[in-house]
Design a protein that fits this description.
Butyryl-CoA Dehydrogenase, subunit A, domain 2; 360 residues; 12 helices; 3 domains; Butyryl-Coa Dehydrogenase, subunit A, domain 1
């Protein structure tokens, strides 16, 4: 038995990577951050044209109806090119919330728009994985009050918001009583923000429950693990390429044993992670009993390995690794954001321990 990507998935991966390369890669990312763009409309439109924004949405609602493994493949490609595009929230978590918990009317209204790329959806789940201070959203007298931090795909038209009881709500970005505050994080490729609710009217997703919220968190963790995988792989590739070009003492530094060891360590650490992420994404669809634990393991392990590769790759580049000219810091910072969103390694491992009955 061979476990790997199907021919169709390899073609999906190749087409997405080809499109992202044609968009300019790091050059496009620099422009996005430098000009303070809220959305990279050209990138979003291109991804929608490839069917990426409707990847997991059923065909009945204008999507493609593929699996979470397919979605993880795209997430990996976006991480590899440090792409400034709304994806995990808009193309994965928001559609999933509507598919699992929305009414038929809500599905009919919102899913086709998300699949077509006509809509960006932010997702506020962070308080479900570890609230900061008194943050958190609750339902009071039929309206939302409180604060949601670190909202994924913050520059959005609608938001899916989890309250402290595990219910999910759909909120318009211009709803009266909703205050939006941009948060500056280390990763400039994906806008993040804070939502403050002061008696905000919202549509509850009627079938929402703690179990649905748990699935959203699991899926989100796998998608961010895949993003780390892509970003770390590109940093490794850059380190190897640089070591072959950079010369000291009239020799390429790739011939030095110390540099060879650094590159080999990165390969040895990262290569097993690919199967780990693929299996975690596969489990989301095919092995629901294992999905939460494998998602935790993938997110925690990739967070550690990604940090290691980011550091080692920078060291291979020497002083140039810290310059904007090389631009390694864009991948470094993206990995740092992925590491912490929806729970850092310690938090995620604690979740895994609880799920396996090792702690309460």
């Amino acid at each position: 038995m061979e476990f790997g990507l199907s021919q169709e998935q390899v073609m999906l991966q190749a087409s997405v990577e080809r499109f992202l390369a044609d968009q300019g890669g790091l050059t496009r990312t620099r422009k996005f951050i430098g000009e303070g763009e809220a959305r990279a409309h050209d990138v979003l439109e291109g991804l929608a044209g490839l069917g990426v924004m409707g990847l997991i949405i059923p065909e009945a609602f204008g999507g493609v109806g593929l699996s979470f493994l397919d979605a993880a493949i795209v997430s990996e490609a976006l991480g590899r090119f440090v792409t400034p595009a709304p994806y995990v929230g808009t193309a994965v978590l928001a559609p999933l919330a509507l598919m699992r918990a929305g009414s038929e009317a809500q599905k009919t209204e919102w899913l086709p728009k998300l699949a077509a790329g006509d809509l960006v959806a932010g997702v506020a789940l962070s308080e479900a994985t570890g609230a900061r201070g008194d943050a958190g959203v609750r339902l009071k007298d039929g309206k939302l009050v409180g604060t949601a931090l670190f909202v994924i795909d913050y520059e959005a038209d609608i938001f899916i918001v989890a309250d402290l009881d595990g219910r999910l709500h759909l909120v318009a970005a211009d709803a009266p009583g909703l205050t939006r505050t941009s948060l500056k994080t280390i990763d400039g490729t994906r806008p993040t923000g804070e939502l403050t609710f002061e008696g905000v009217s919202a549509e509850v997703l009627a079938a929402s429950s703690p179990a649905v919220l748990r699935e959203l968190i699991d899926v989100g963790r796998v998608m961010f693990a895949a993003d780390i995988l892509g970003a770390a792989q590109d940093m490794l590739d850059q380190a190897v390429a640089y070591s072959k070009e950079r010369k000291q003492f009239e020799r390429a530094i790739a011939t030095f044993q110390a540099v060879k060891h650094m590159c080999a360590e990165m390969v040895a650490a990262l290569e097993p992670c690919r199967a780990m992420v693929w299996y975690a994404a596969y489990a989301l669809d095919a092995l629901p009993a294992e999905a939460s634990v494998t998602a935790c393991h993938a997110k925690a392990h990739l967070s550690e390995v990604g940090t290691f590769v980011a550091r080692r790759s920078t060291e291979v580049h020497g002083g140039m690794g810290f310059t904007d000219l090389v631009g390694l810091h864009y991948w470094f910072k993206r990995i740092g954001f992925d590491r912490q969103i929806l729970g850092g390694p310690q938090t995620v491992r604690e979740d895994a321990a609880r799920l396996q009955g090792f702690s309460s």
